[in-house]
Write a structure and sequence with these properties.
This protein is mainly α. The chain has helices spanning about 5-25, 30-50, 55-65, 70-80, 105-115, 125-130, 145-150, 155-170, 190-195, 210-215, 220-240; strands spanning about 180, 185-190. The chain is about 55% helix and about 0% strand. It starts with a helix and ends with a helix. Pfam families: LYRM2-like. This is Protein. It comes from Lentinula edodes (Shiitake mushroom).
Length: about 240
């Protein structure tokens, strides 16, 4: 899917969702209603600025459409964060409470966390996923600190591990698709191949978004900017004519 169909489809769906939520808001919940109106108005202003060629506004709506921010980011990341159906669950940190298991880093999430290109800041080291740098060394019962000061509270260890997990995944750019390497050494993004390799499927899998981006950036800057503004204007007009 190239830039034009993606933006048109995304903002058509977003407009429908936003106005449906607004219409369903009870009139007596004025604070919630005003909050939703304010958010919709803000998005409309940003689209209007993008139409005029404002680079920051255009970057913002691209971030929305590609899941770099907003609700779509969570939807793309959710399959990689799920703690359900994990083949081998870790033991609970607090033995008497099964709900105290530490977070599980899926193979896909781990790959994103340790890769500089998929992070908003410095990438992590693999060992940091096993023992977060924010976790006191007293969590290791064989450490010198644990011997001198006593072991770390299990509840504190549980909370620290989960806070670190949540903080770090939010710094990741969600993947547009998951690729697996076949026996022939070639990468495949087809849903059937990813599932066969026991990989996780993200919402934009096998839709050609990455190919669309490659095609888009292959153009010169002037053509890209001019063409993009035309696309945004078209989406904006469609958006208004629908409501």
């Amino acid at each position: 899917m190239t830039l034009a169909p993606l933006l048109s489809s995304f903002f058509r769906i977003k407009a429908s969702d936003d106005f449906r939520a607004l219409a369903a808001t009870p009139t007596h919940k004025s604070q919630l209603r005003n909050s939703r109106i304010k958010r919709i108005s803000k998005d409309l202003r940003r689209i209007g600025l993008a139409v005029t060629g404002r680079q920051d506004a255009f970057s913002y709506i691209l971030d929305l459409a590609y899941g770099r921010r907003g609700k779509l980011k969570w939807e793309l990341m959710e399959p990689l964060l799920t703690q359900a159906n994990v083949p081998s669950l870790p033991e609970p940190i607090i033995h008497s409470r099964s709900s105290s298991r530490p977070p599980v880093y899926s193979a896909e999430l781990s790959a994103l966390l340790i890769n500089t290109a998929s992070r908003t800041n410095k990438s992590l080291e693999l060992h940091q996923l096993k023992f977060p740098p924010t976790l006191s060394s007293r969590a290791n019962p064989t450490s010198e600190e644990a011997r001198l000061l006593g072991p770390l509270s299990k509840r504190l260890e549980f909370n620290t591990r989960w806070r670190y997990f949540t903080r770090e995944w939010k710094k990741v750019y969600p993947p547009l698709e998951i690729a697996v390497k076949g026996n022939n050494g070639l990468l495949s993004t087809s849903v059937s191949d990813v599932l066969r390799a026991e990989g996780k499927i993200v919402g934009s899998q096998d839709q050609g978004l990455l190919d669309g981006i490659k095609e888009m950036v292959a153009q010169n800057d002037t053509t890209l900017l001019d063409g993009s503004v035309v696309v945004i204007k078209h989406c904006w007009e469609e958006f208004l004519s629908s409501y």
